[in-house]
Amino acid sequence: MKSFPSQIAIDGPVASGKTVVGRILARRLGYRFLDTGLMYRAITWLALKEGVPLEGAPLTELAAKARIRVVDQGEGNSRIIVNGVDVTDELRSPVVEGAVSVVSAAAGLREVMVEHQRAIAREGAIVMVGRDIGTVVLPDAGLKVFLQASVAERASRRYRELREMGKETSYKAILDNLRERDALDSQRAYAPLQPAEDARILDTDGIGVEEVVERVLAMVDGTG
């Protein structure tokens, strides 16, 4: 009988498909799912709400004191609770969207968040997605996957997603935002976005979500 890895790390840039792929993968395997980006968005939301600077010691102290709970609802779905408040529906707001890359680049904050994330991983089998899961958060994960796609492809995906949600936007604005966030994520001093040395690289340009999931599942069971 094959033994599947209990920790699966999926990393990649913004809109590379890691969240939707990770959620479906967790559902198929019966694992818990954590999108670590939502945790950084939660702290961003809290900092904006409390009027705390988006970098430096005050932000780190805010994160250290915050009570963050990830409530697993099964089927790869979860809710984010911050200091007793369900903030899940606030985390994709434009104001949070515009500030989260600055917040998540703060080294002190990331150290605090990594400890939160490792504690969650110790609770049982999990698929965790983010920017530094395979390199920093779960360096001993049994499977590490790095999803990549061209910035043009990713901008098209995000544009379609937002239009389907009824949100007015422009392709150029999304493209410019992704380029800016890519630069911030890959050039930050602490835990920059990059594949782990032992990560499996999967280019998702022109590939549908279900096919990506199937390819990752093949990696999980050792056939891919």
Report a brief summary of the structure.
This protein is of the alpha/beta class. The chain has helices spanning 18-29, 36-50, 57-65, 94-104, 107-121, 133-137, 151-164, 171-187, 209-220, and strands at residues 7-11, 32-35, 68-74, 77-82, 85-86, 126-130, 143-148, 200-203.
Q: What do these coordinates show?
A:
This protein is of the alpha/beta class and 224 residues long. It is 49% helix and 17% strand. The mean pLDDT is 91. The chain has a single domain, classed as P-loop containing nucleotide triphosphate hydrolases (Rossmann fold). The chain is built from nine helices and eight strands. Helix 1 crosses helix 9 and helix 2 crosses helix 4. The two termini are 17 Å apart. Strands 2-6-1-7-8 form a five-stranded parallel β-sheet. Strands 3-4-5 form a three-stranded antiparallel β-sheet, with helices on one face.
